Amino acid sequence: MWAGVLGILLSASAFARPVSYTGGWTLIQTANRASTAGLLHYSVSHKVSVGVRHEWQRDDDVTLTVIQPTWLAKRWYGHNYQANVYLTGGLGTATDRSFAGLGSDTASFVGVMTDWETRTLFVSYEARFLEQGKLGNHSMHAARVGWAPYTGDTGELHTWLMLEVDHRKHFDNKTTVTPLLRFFKGPALFEAGYNVTDSAPMFNFTYRF
Amino acid sequence: MKNILLILTVTLTSLPVLADDNQKIMDHHDPHEMNHGEMNHGPEHNHGSHEHPTENAKEDVMTMSVPAITTTDDISAALANGGAPVVVDVLGVVCDFCAVAMNKIFGKREEVSALYVDLDKKTLSLVVNKGASLSDQDIENLAKRAGYRIAAIRRDAEALGG
What we know:
The structure holds two protein chains of two kinds. By secondary structure, chain A is mainly β. In chain A, 4% of the residues lie in helices and 63% in strands. Chain A has a single domain (2-208), classed as monomeric porin ompg (Porin), CATH 2.40.160.40. In chain A, strands 1-2-3-4-5-6-7-8-9-10-11-12 form a twelve-stranded antiparallel β-barrel. The longest helix of chain A has 8 residues, at 2-9. Chain A is globular and about 50 Å long. The model of chain A is unreliable at 1-14 (pLDDT under 50). By secondary structure, chain B is an alpha+beta fold. Chain B has helices spanning 2-13, 16-27, 73-80, 96-107, 136-146, 156-159; strands spanning 84-91, 112-118, 123-128, 149-155. A four-stranded antiparallel beta sheet of chain B has the order 2-3-1-4, with helices on both faces. The model of chain B is unreliable at 8-64 (pLDDT under 50). Chain B has one domain (30-159): Alpha-Beta Plaits (2-Layer Sandwich). Chains A and B meet through strand 4, strand 5 and strand 6 of A and helix 1, helix 2, helix 4, strand 2 and helix 5 of B.
């Protein structure tokens, strides 16, 4: 039960910058149709962060706990935009929490995340390939587009309308669509959406400190 | 899987529309060499079209083509105490996380008595303590630690819009 509660409280997503400023900490939590998970990471530089990720894959009732480094491989700086390519990975343990009692196995994943953002437009893509030994392998692709109806200045509430399409081939509904709202203010980001294909809510939260 | 990652990375790093802007930054070592009359500050530099937060009584001071220091209560007080104004044009500033990063990095410096990140102008306004100094190289390094690049630095009268 507590693993499930922890899973609901913690989660991680690529859509909220996975590397911060040098010396910065970030808590990223996500809950979507597939999992609830979280990542607490520390940025050792503006290009590298190292964190601990805990994830609960609800369908399989498998939990994943890994050390997750992320590398900002490339950032483009424009007068009106920013674009990024991140490479990430994870190594740790996956544990079966179901009645099947399959035990634990070594888990590892690699992933790529890209985004391009202005103050009113947002496009991103991420993919992750997860290996969990006897507990199964999963792949995930997700892409987003977003539009901000107004441009908030520093410290104001920033609001985005977004649409996410994800593909998970181990699900019955392999490709699904999630419209969502993003609210952004200072160091906090909150997202709420609903997967209209799989009838599942989405809640994401990021806090940078 | 490795091939997918490799192809994606190579493709994105070679996109000419993005590489052009990046190259300009890489080639630009002395911020004072930039011709501000030719600098593209983008369409969001029309400051007559919005209001700023009233909490700090922020007020725009604009010149013909380059943004001057953004005054807040803290910045006005620091200037009144004899601090030196500095305006930094920052590239890639698109959200509040950018502002948080620069506030954290620059705010830790003893030389800095007040600062404000202006997303509309894409500038970092600084007041350097009277008698202290913060070189262009220092500012460039600090911006880099925050994850950003700078396009230009203006000081003193130029920073005030004079």
